[in-house]
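An instance noted here:
***
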Amino acid sequence: MSVPSADDLLVLLAVGRSGRFTSAADDLGVNHTTISRRIAALERSLGGRVLTRSAAGWELTDLGREALDAAERIEAAVGRLRNPSGERRLEGVVRISATDGFSAYIAAPAGALVRQRHPGISVEIVATTRRASQQRSGMDVEVVVGRPQVHRAEAHRLADYTLGLYASRDYLAAHGSPSSVRDLREHTLVYFIDSMLQVDDLDVARRIAPDMQDSISSTNVFVHVEATRAAGGLGLLPCFMADRHPDLVRILPGEVEARLAYWLVARSETLRRPEVAAAVAAIREVAHAERAVLLGVAR
């Protein structure tokens, strides 16, 4: 064994946070071959494997976790050298995956908050509605609906939100307002495309309004909102989105609704990265401030 290179340790840090050689290469501005060569050199110097392949990508071995601790100390020391005052300037890219509505109304304001506090951080938001990825997909943080089943990652409950049934005033003028759950069978539903729905917790329409036929369906919740506003049917919508529109009326509140939860998923190594920690703190801050809106009790 020999003394490991600081550069090799920093490469391990990048791979440990993303779980992927390609993502680490992008973050460090090198190619995939360089990452592989650096990891091999580090393993030779330490006399053992630092990474092992799994279904979730590259995972740290026990030796790898020890090396990662050293790499984090090197990163912190380099940061202090850049800023002799001792306060590290946070910089780099933080990648967040979240549902459409969460991306727009929670993640985007949180990203702006991060930028105000740390101008060196860039925030990338990928809007998608899916289960938590088992391979992290190059994202630092994922926000999903429902408690995720993940391995070698942390899952934290962020906030609850309410789905309610809504109609436009024009729709009600033309079709009347249902006065009971039984009346819903006379109306059509605006919601997700059932065959393309990837998130089990979002399959609530069939439980709370099983007799409603589909009218306009989409994989995008903003389409649900606009189709409902255009009198396309009754929309099962997140209250924090629908309540922003005075032309929408909530139908049978307290009778036809569902409480769901947003969960944050990330690798432990990634959450220790100061830039990611700053983004997560901002997301939590915005979600807490919007709690009443998310639950549909602030209108």
